[in-house]
What we know:
Blueprint: E1 2-6, H1 8-12, E2 19-26, E3 29-37, E4 42-47, E5 52-54, E6 57-58, E7 71-75, H2 85-94, E8 98-100, H3 105-113, E9 119-125, H4 127-139, E10 143-144, H5 149-155, E11 157-162, H6 167-177
Parallel strand pairs: 7-8, 7-9
Antiparallel strand pairs: 1-2, 2-3, 3-4, 4-5, 5-6, 9-11, 10-11
Helix pairs in contact: 2-6, 3-4
Amino acid sequence: MIDPIDGTTNFVNGIPAWTIVIAGVSESQTQVGVIFEPNVGETYVAVGGEGATLNGHAMQVASSVELASGTVSIGYSNRVEASNVVPVIAALIERGALYHRNASGALSLAYVAAGRLLGYIEEHMNAWDCLAGQLIIAEAGGEIEDQDADGMIRDGGRAIAGTPAVFDTLKMICEDAWNE
């Protein structure tokens, strides 16, 4: 699966926050993920069971950083009710966290894997935007929701990913906000 430009709005408007994404899926599991950010020359790669790298160097998610000491990226689109993002932002602020939106879900997921962000949440993503990043986060020591990649390819779905220290809290915030 290939997304030639994730962050299309950024690309069209000259904002240098967009990526090229490739995910290889077999037997309902993402086996390989690549996210390339050409504007800064960064390539994030993971192969199932082999760890994750940034420009060829091993990388890990942030460790032992509490929610109040970091930033969580939030994605949203016209596929969901815009009002559903407000309680997520409010819950993060109430816990002392910062929130971030850069309009490229794949790039935000890559930043979680690199330890730059604590997590990423979006109520509905397309598979080509998230499968590679989810694998990269998992291989960098982060947590993601278990998903059937074939189901994501067919229907899309929610994406919740984060460091071990914040994942459960992010999941609870999302489930409360999205009434799940």
